[in-house]
Design a protein that fits this description.
The structure holds two protein chains of two kinds. Chain A is 32% helix and 4% strand. A two-stranded antiparallel sheet of chain A has the order 1-2. The radius of gyration of chain A is 23 Å and the shape is flat. Chain B has a domain of 335 residues: Amidase signature (AS) domain (Amidase signature (AS) enzymes, Alpha-Beta Complex). An eleven-stranded mixed β-sheet of chain B has the order 1-3-2-4-6-5-10-11-9-7-8, with helices on both faces. In chain B, helix 2 packs antiparallel against helix 3 and helix 10 packs across helix 13. The two termini of chain B are 18 Å apart. The relative contact order of chain B is 0.13. The chains are: A mainly alpha, B alpha/beta. The interface between A and B is large, with 49 and 68 residues.
């Protein structure tokens, strides 16, 4: 399965990344190298294999829905690139 | 008096108890080493003032006769662990100014046990890399370098280099596909990645959450046991943390290995395996046999598919984990007036380095509509087969012995490695399977190759059986007599 330039652009957008026009071909080439290497996996028949999602065999515990953390808005906003009126600030999203 | 920074952690603890020097003296000696070793670029942030304050408290505790288990031990922390009020960058421009308002569980445990933090150690950006060359803060230089600057391995390259060059007594690392073991091997250090779930992941900047584990890198096996014990334990803040007791790991080191069955997987000896690596592997098996262990060949039939499986699953998880870096709540934000989507794209394109972007895109691709089953689901099924290989092998043996890496440290900017990303990925061939199976594994130095650079051996254990690994490693360490820098 070969990846075309349109796919590279689409994946870049889905990733919210941009690839310079002059680097598209190189990225495509790299992608194809990696994906054809990965396609070696098709040598093995896995039709009747259960996927392994977590190596942990424990049932994830449920805890009480209590507040255990929080109430330090100021500390959190200290790392915000832009904050106004005690909120994260973003560019205008509606005209 | 001998250089106190060359002592191991267990030796240092003995000396401190005997009051042969103070923690303040010790901390100053390490800070001086750091100052004089800037060319290794091992640290991203040095916390001299804070370290000296912690040293003062530690000295008081020794004076009172109430030292904690790691009282006054100066450590370096991989800059992937969030440290409260200390900049934590993940070696990325994206988090260049990020100051966490909280402490990771693992570092909190070390602090509670009395450790002194000297600073934050360099790594591959977001722990993605095997050579420490992807760091936004520049590459780390392997202290074993002679005429040419060599890589320290990665991603915990700063950790291994700092331990090897005595810029800290021990360090934390993280390991997603070999990121503790490979740099430990390249720098002649010992490092252990415990069983998935042994150490809490809370506060460790996530790369691939189903594979990531924290662990120590140190000068010897005993130090690894001491640090691992402090770092381990159930934590309600990490839902994958395992509710089991933490054993006294040091106690395992003195057990006899007579009758212990050591497996050597035949698939780890592919045609063309570096003969020096193969010879050291056989020599190590011989050492264990001489101590009464039973060495036998085992098979892990799906080994050759582990790398490709890993390079689907790890990027997939990374692409999801790194979606949070959008320039809104923390981290870098691109400047300029633009629409929200453009802001995301500009921020992420400028904030991430090439390898991170490559993995995000591969991960996005394998998770995208129409390809999910062919790649992601397929890889999860392969992961089951790789996992089951180990479980079957452990019906016949107690521990598995392999080399850690097929090569020694290579030059920074090596053309062959940079030509094709897959060439770099292939260095993980002996380490990634362990992460896929969630098993504990350790690397320790076995000797020098003809080029004068360290080679490592890897021990892989059953789930939560770090004790056996450490015990066998201690025996190999004694027999190998590896000379550290």
């Amino acid at each position: 399965m070969s990846i075309d330039q349109e796919t590279v652009k689409r994946i870049a957008f889905l990733s919210r990344l941009s690839v310079d026009e002059d680097k598209i071909e190189a990225t495509q080439d790299e992608f194809n190298k990696i994906m054809s290497w990965i396609e070696n996996l098709n040598e093995i028949d896995t039709d009747h294999v259960e996927p392994l999602i977590s190596v942990n065999d424990i049932q994830i515990k449920l805890r009480k829905d209590n507040v255990t953390d929080g109430n330090y808005r100021e500390k959190i906003l200290q790392n915000a690139p832009a904050a106004e009126y005690d909120y994260f600030a973003v560019p205008k999203v509606m005209e | 008096m001998t250089d106190i920074t060359k002592l191991t952690i267990h030796e240092t603890l003995d000396e401190l108890k005997k009051k042969n020097f103070s923690v303040t003296e010790l901390t100053k000696a390490y800070l001086k080493n750091i100052d004089q070793a800037e060319r290794y670029n091992a640290y991203i942030t040095v916390c001299a003032e804070r370290a000296l304050e912690q040293a003062k408290t530690a000295d008081q505790n020794y004076a009172k006769g109430t030292p904690r288990p790691l009282e006054g031990i100066p450590l370096g922390i991989k800059d992937l662990f969030c440290t409260k009020d200390i900049r934590t960058t993940a070696a990325s421009h994206m988090l260049g100014n990020f100051v966490p308002p909280y402490e990771s569980t693992v570092t909190e445990k070390l602090l509670n046990d009395g450790a002194v933090f000297l600073g934050k150690l360099n790594l591959d950006e977001f722990a993605m890399g095997g050579s420490n060359e992807t760091s936004a803060f520049g590459p780390v230089v392997n202290p074993w370098s002679k005429d040419v600057d060599l890589v320290p391995g990665g991603s915990s390259g700063g950790s291994a280099a700092a331990v090897a060059a005595h810029l800290c007594a021990g360090a934390t690392g993280t390991d997603t596909g070999g990121s503790i073991r490979e740099p430990a091997a390249f720098c002649g250090c010992s490092g252990i990645k415990p069983t998935y779930g042994r150490c809490s992941r809370y506060g460790i900047i996530a790369f691939a959450s189903s594979l990531d584990q924290a662990g120590p890198i140190a000068q010897d096996v005993t130090d690894c046991a001491l640090l691992l014990e402090s770092m381990s334990g159930y934590d309600a803040k990490d839902s994958t943390s395992y509710p089991t007791d933490v054993p006294n790991f040091v106690r395992f080191l003195h057990e006899d290995i007579k009758g212990l069955v050591v497996g050597m997987p035949k698939e780890y000896r592919p045609e063309g395996l570096n003969p020096e690596v193969a010879a050291y592997w056989d020599k190590t098996a011989e050492m264990l046999r001489a101590r009464g262990a039973i060495v036998k060949e085992i098979s892990l039939p799906h080994t050759q598919y582990a790398l490709a499986t890993y390079y689907v699953l790890a990027p997939a998880e990374a692409s999801s984990n790194l979606a949070r870096y959008d320039g809104i709540r923390y981290g870098y934000r691109a400047s300029g007036d633009c629409h929200l989507d453009e802001l995301y794209i500009k921020t992420r394109t400028q904030g991430f380095g090439a390898e991170v972007k490559r993995r995000i895109m591969i991960g996005t691709y394998v998770l995208s509509a129409g390809y999910y089953d062919a790649y992601y689901l397929k890889a999860q099924k392969m992961r089951r087969l790789i996992h089951d290989d180990f479980m079957k092998a452990f019906e016949q043996c107690d521990v598995i012995l392999t080399p850690t890496s097929p090569i020694t440290a290579f030059p920074i900017g090596d053309k062959e490695m940079l030509k094709n990303p897959i060439n770099m990925y292939l260095n993980d061939v002996f380490t990634v399977s362990v992460n896929l199976a969630g098993l504990p594994a350790m690397s320790l130095p076995i000797g020098l190759a003809a080029n004068g650079l360290p080679l490592g051996m890897q021990l892989i254990g059953k789930p939560f059986d770090e004790g056996t690994i450490l015990n066998v490693a201690a025996k190999i360490e004694e027999d190998a007599g590896f000379e550290r820098l």
